[in-house]
Specification:
- It is a single chain.
- By secondary structure, this protein is mainly α.
- The protein folds into 3 domains: 31-60 and 197-256 and 344-433, no CATH class; 71-183; 266-336, no CATH class.
- The chain has 19 helices and 4 strands.
- The chain has helices at 40-69, 71-90, 94-97, 105-117, 119-127, 131-148, 160-172, 174-183, 186-189, 201-212, 220-223, 239-242, 245-251, 299-317, 333-336, 351-367, 371-387, 405-419, 428-433; strands at residues 266-269, 276-277, 280-281, 286-289.
- A hairpin with a 2-residue loop joins strand 2 (276-277) and strand 3 (280-281).
- Helix 2 (71-90) packs antiparallel against helix 7 (160-172), helix 6 (131-148) crosses helix 7 (160-172) and helix 16 crosses helix 18.
- The longest helix is centred in the first third of the chain and has 30 residues, at 40-69.
- It is globular and about 65 Å long.
Length: 444
């Protein structure tokens, strides 16, 4: 059953932003995006945000496929994550400033799940809780505390008893994690934390909408670029995204980044692996291993991964490191000219079609409503959101129009096919993520 209202029948989903405070002589016309990226920082921010949003879409498709096809495993892993989160929060005593836990909590949780995801750590945990394990996990937490300048996370506040409680819990979980990783290929491409970081479609759509019309507070680092980048990129850079449970888990940890997508290229970290050349240990270094007897596979994706890994190591080892400051490295091609082959997002005009489709899909799955009921409910909700723009005349300058019912239905069916493709059929998600041409994400 398809419904439309006379009011919105001819509307489209296109948006065009003209800032009420932009200089009158500012040239905003550049291709379909409609923006003159006049500064180096604006161009970099624009490209980074588009790539991040594209990778978030891929990761959100993957999480929903995990939930749809392996619901029991998904729920059990979610419960493990929630229990671990409670242990971590309790590890910071109130007098030490538990209120500080909110912002770094996802990084701590991501680090703790990565700790048990490491095969060597699981083997050690299955035997006993050793001083080496304590020191290793404490180092992970201290690195986060140092990079974020949060002294409340330091050794003085997470004592050995609390640390042992966390390690004991991880030890009891090793059998389940061993089984999960061995059975499902999701974890070849994404981490345990990634595969439990589901952001509701409604949350993403509303956040993009409200951020783009100026109802959210931009972070200081992009506030001065407000009139040079597409408003639909604002959602990546708001204070509100840092305080939303679901969005912050994805944005703050960059868990949307898939693992190295190559079968014959490897990256090793000297801080996590014992690496030496001619008996010289490489501790604070990254090592990229390229084959010379075969053609390197998906090298662009690997270099993107290397870029991210290097920046993380620099931020960890060089407190106060600023990627925007003047230096040859910060202006290098390595940091600024890498080509990203998109999953689905080639321009900002495509973003909302996937977010509204996720919204419909989530409502159908969680409430057991029939698709046409969810479509009608969300169509009316979106119309109401757009009608509310008249409350503030300036917001009308964004000239955003809602989707029609039929358009939402088309997007929903496309997303549903990618989450649950026909048996033995490779979807665009499989083609984007999986190294082998015959692999399907989620196959056992």
């Amino acid at each position: 059953m398809k419904k439309t209202t006379g009011k919105s029948k001819q509307r489209t989903s296109e948006s065009r932003y003209i800032s009420p405070s932009a200089p009158k002589d500012m040239d905003l016309n550049v291709g379909e995006e409609g923006y003159e990226l006049s500064s180096y920082e604006a161009r970099k921010t624009h490209a980074k945000a588009l790539r991040q949003s594209d990778l978030i879409l891929a990761q959100q498709f993957a999480v929903r496929r995990f939930q749809a096809h392996h619901g029991g495993d998904f729920e059990k892993l979610m419960q493990l994550r929630q229990q671990l989160a409670r242990l971590l929060e309790a590890a910071i005593p109130e007098e030490g400033g538990r209120e500080w836990f909110f912002y770094p909590r996802n990084r701590l949780l991501c680090a703790a799940l990565a700790f048990i995801e490491n095969t060597g750590n699981r083997r050690a945990l299955s035997r006993s809780i050793s001083d080496d394990l304590r020191a290793s996990l404490r180092t992970e937490f201290d690195d986060i505390a140092r990079s974020l300048d949060y002294p409340v996370l330091s050794q003085a506040y997470i004592d050995d008893d609390r640390l042992d409680q966390i390690l004991a819990f991880l030890s009891r979980s090793t059998t389940f994690i061993d089984d999960l990783i061995s059975r499902l290929n999701f974890f070849r491409y994404y981490s345990l934390f990634s595969m439990t970081s589901l952001v509701p479609g409604k949350t993403m759509y509303e956040h993009v909408f409200n951020a783009s019309i100026g109802r959210m507070t931009l972070l200081a680092k992009v506030e001065n670029l407000r009139h040079q980048i597409d408003p639909q990129s604002f959602w990546m850079f708001t204070q509100e995204s840092r305080f939303d449970d679901h969005l912050s888990a994805v944005i703050d940890t960059a868990c949307y980044e898939p693992r190295t997508l190559s079968s014959n290229i490897q990256i090793f970290s000297g801080s996590k692996n014992k690496i030496s050349i001619d008996d010289v240990a490489l501790k604070d270094q990254l090592v990229l291993v390229l084959p010379t007897a075969s053609i390197p596979e998906k090298i662009d994706a690997v270099i993107h991964y290397l870029q991210k890994a290097l920046l993380q190591e620099l931020e960890k080892n060089l407190p106060g490191y600023d990627v925007t400051r003047e230096s040859d490295f910060n202006h290098s091609l390595f940091l600024n000219q890498l080509h990203h082959t998109p999953f689905v997002l080639k321009s900002w005009g495509q973003l909302n079609q996937y977010l509204v489709a996720f919204w419909v899909y989530d409502v159908v799955q969680s409430s057991r409503k029939r698709p046409h009921q969810a479509l009608e409910e969300i169509h009316l909700a979106i119309e109401s959101m757009h009608d509310s723009l008249s409350i503030n005349p300036d917001e009308k300058l964004f000239k955003m129009e809602p989707f029609t019912y039929d358009t939402i239905e088309t997007y929903y069916l496309d997303v549903k096919r990618q989450i649950a493709p026909a048996r033995n059929t490779r979807s665009p998600l499989d083609q984007f993520l999986c190294v082998s041409p015959d692999h399907i994400l989620g196959a056992t």
